[in-house]
Amino acid sequence: MNSKGMKLAGSGFEIRSAEGMDAAEIAAVLRRSIAELCVADHNNDPERLGSWLRNKTEETALGWIEGPGQVLVAVSQGSDRQLLGVGMALPAGEVVLNYVDPSARYQGVSKALMWSLESYFTTIGVTHVSLRSTLTAERFYRSIGYVQSDIPLDPGDRAAAIFEKDLHP
Question: What is the CA radius of gyration of the chain?
Answer without folding.
Answer: 15
